[in-house]
Amino acid sequence: MINKTYILVFNETNFTRDDLVKFVESQPEAPNWFYCIAHTVFVVTSLEPKELSHRLERKFGRFRHFITEVTLNRWGRMPGEQWDSIR
Fold it and tell me: How far apart are alpha carbons 50 and 16 in whole angstroms?
């Protein structure tokens, strides 16, 4: 499968961003991730958003979150090395 970059926005209720990142790192289909914005993790993965969401909820229970693909139609302010990660 092809890896895509997704932005995962979430509400930290019963877990921390570090907990979420540790779980993402345990997924073989998610070889890379980074964060530079509160309540947000960029995830590079071959998983579809729905499957990633299901895995997260199996681990952490139901929580508010949103996952969408990062496309070429984007703009914002982040450190340069972060932009390189999503090109």
Answer: 21
